Amino acid sequence: MCLAIPGKILEIHGNKAIVDFGGISREVRIDLVDADVGDYVIVHVGYAIQKLSEEEAEENIRLLREMI
Amino acid sequence: MLHEFRDKSIAKRLSGRIRKISKGMGHIKIMHVCGTHEYTITRFGIRSLLPENIEVISGPGCPVCVTTTREIDEAILLSKNEDVIVTTFGDMLRVPGSESSLVDAKSRGCDVRVVYSISDAVEIARENSRREVIHVAIGFETTSPSTAVEIKNAPENFSILNCHRLIPPAMEFLMERGNVKINGFINPGHVSTIIGLRPYYKISEKYNVPQVIAGFEPNDVLFAILILLDMIKKGEFEVRNEYSRVVREEGNLRAIKAINEVFKPSDVKWRGFPEIPGSGLKLRNRFLKYDAREKFDINLRNSKEPKGCRCGDILKGTIHPRECPLFSKICIPENPIGPCMVSMEGACAIAYRYGSE
Ligand code: SF4
Question: What does the alpha-carbon distance between residue B234 and residue A43 come to, in Å, rounded to a whole number?
Answer without folding.
Answer: 37
